[in-house]
Design a protein that fits this description.
Elements: H1 4-24, H2 30-60, H3 73-76, H4 80-87, H5 97-103, H6 110-124, H7 131-134, H8 152-168, H9 171-174, H10 181-188, H11 204-214
Helix pairs in contact: 1-8, 2-8, 2-10, 5-8
Length: 230
């Protein structure tokens, strides 16, 4: 039986990604586009994850109107060490995804802002157990690439549209389902050649079908041969 809600959420995510693709069409190829979208999605995710964690703690303590995103950077510095121990990373309120996105259209140095934010996030994890997970996390997100535009103004215009597009995604409703944005982005460009990696990508539906065909009538499987990685 088809899960209608899940399919609707999947279609919503797909439409949102295609809308961003239309904004960047002709500027970046499939591989780079995937890096920009996934990098921005992850930036949004960790920003909301940290904000939600802090807000929940404060609200549980009786501070119902507390919102970490609205605090000043100075006010939060004293909590940095404790949050690093608990979460493994730290983001200043001014550098949260929601605040950078809100200022994006008026930020003449948006590319520099994002570069600085990404460096701060990566550096915040140094010395913690999560250091290896955050090291070089945003290396593939080139905010100064000519592929985004020939001028700083053009690049910032596209970066702002990218932020707005990710902000518009209804990720809160899909996070608990098995809708894989990475897989969908790969599928979008699987027909391409070269570094798009399409020739090495098999959509999950095909993998599931092949698995079912290969295991018909079998109760035990000893070995599996994957020709794609042979």
């Amino acid at each position: 039986m088809v899960d209608t809600k899940k399919e609707q959420e999947r279609e919503e995510l797909h439409r949102a990604i295609w809308a961003i693709a239309d904004e960047l069409r002709g500027a970046v190829d499939g591989w780079d586009f995937k890096n920009y979208v996934l990098g921005t999605m992850f930036y949004r995710y960790i920003s909301e994850n940290l904000t939600g964690y802090i807000n929940a703690g404060e609200q549980a303590a009786g501070n119902s109107d507390f919102d970490y995103a609205k605090m000043s950077d100075t006010e939060t510095e004293e909590a940095r060490e404790g949050l690093m121990e608990e979460k493994g990373f730290f983001i200043l309120p001014s550098e949260l995804f929601c605040n950078v996105n809100e200022r994006a259209d008026s930020d003449e140095n948006l590319n520099e802002t994002l570069e600085r934010v990404f460096i701060h996030i990566e550096n915040s994890a140094k010395g913690s157990l999560s250091e290896s997970s955050f090291a070089g996390l945003f290396d593939d997100f080139d905010v100064n690439s000519n592929k985004l535009g020939a001028t700083v103004g053009k690049r910032n215009e596209r970066l702002a549209k990218l932020l707005h597009g990710i902000a518009a995604m209804n990720l809160g409703d899909v996070k608990d389902h098995d809708i894989d944005a990475y897989e969908y982005l790969m599928t979008m460009y699987a027909s391409g050649a070269g570094k798009s990696g399409g020739e090495f990508f098999t959509p999950s539906d095909v993998s599931v079908l092949l698995t079912r065909l290969g295991t018909v009538g079998k109760t035990e499987i000893n070995k599996v041969y994957d020709e794609a990685v042979a």
